[in-house]
Amino acid sequence: MASVTILGNTPPFSFGHFDFFCAMAPLPLCSLVTATDGTIVEPVCYARNIDFNSGNYLLFQPATLFLQVIALLMTLTMIFYIRSKYTAVGRKEIVMFFYMYAVTLIVEFLLIGGIIPASTAVYKYFAAFHAGLFVSTFYCLMYNGIVGFQWTEDGTSKSLWTLRLSTLAVLLITFTIAILTFLNLGGLSSSNPIGLYILYFILPALFLIVYVVLQIVLVVTTLDDRWPLGDLLFGLFFFMLGLVLEFVLGPWLCDLAVHYVDGMFFGTICTLLGVMLVYKFWDSITKEDLEFAVSGKANVWEQRNPLMGDDDVVGSLVGGMQNEPW
Length: 326
What we know:
Elements: H1 2-9, H2 19-24, E1 50-52, E2 57-59, H3 62-84, H4 91-112, H5 123-147, H6 157-183, H7 194-222, H8 228-247, H9 250-256, H10 263-285, H11 290-294, E3 302-304, E4 313-316
Antiparallel strand pairs: 1-2, 3-4
């Protein structure tokens, strides 16, 4: 009976409108866009809130917030390991993707938890900023798919500033479209947010598809090992599974869990697994020059033969007699 009720309360899918998605999951922008009839669409089933101070403060999505803290810690751990691979290809470019994902998590934490209430004037600006971060993070991932083809040397000022400026441009464009839509300015309307819809859903999907295709081509044409494709495809699988659990099965899962969690909880788990597999894929296709990763100085440690004179050097733990490989 509950499943029938949920199905009956779900608005139909309509391209250019957020009605269906907002009924399935409490996206940060859902309170700022209206349905075709001018009303705000609320989730069909949502997670329980935590009441603080006798109803004076409500914390929304507590289980998802806890999971986002774990996701942030995992992301910081991956950033640490990426930064420790000093000579790996694309290290400086890929780490920016994880920084973007971490900032997106923080802003989303503030919005969906009600820490920044939807009734405040600044909420719409944070929601627009979150939309910009969301889209530009996918763009940053796509750019990293291009880095492996060495169109320019990775880690150089040209590569890094191209990434930074283009990512910033995507963020600002999305932010501008979002805030104008929320404020009903510039010919944009919160009741017909088709521009924001394309930026929020279509563009990230295209960025993801381009990244996956480029990485498949890179592995097939340049590497003898095909195992990294498993990491890539499993990452794509978890991301797609997260979309299904959040926007298709979300209300049913919420009902089965008696409102303790909803689809956003499972979507966050799958997104984290997808991001972790992006790291695993990058780590599996990059090799580090251990000679220069250990130390920037050559011949720091030397072995000497005690049976010969002190000047007869046997070798070095880093390089040979003149910093040459053994």
